Amino acid sequence: MKLDLQFKIKNDPMLKRYIRENSYWYKILNRNPNMIDNMVDDMKEKYKLTTADKINNISEKLDLIRTFMNVLK
What we know:
Elements: H1 3-11, H2 13-21, H3 24-31, H4 36-46, H5 51-72
Helix pairs in contact: 1-2
């Protein structure tokens, strides 16, 4: 694996955790280092770090607050 990829993975705890849990990415990145973006996308989907997931999380929190406010009325 290229040295810059190793540094990128080592400096990001989420990437480091993801590649340890999904070791098949070692082989993929050794053969094609350009696939790092695909790995990052997969990691974001698995750990729910995409923009849509964040918006959904915020809306769930707002619904919870709204429910508490209605109970307190």
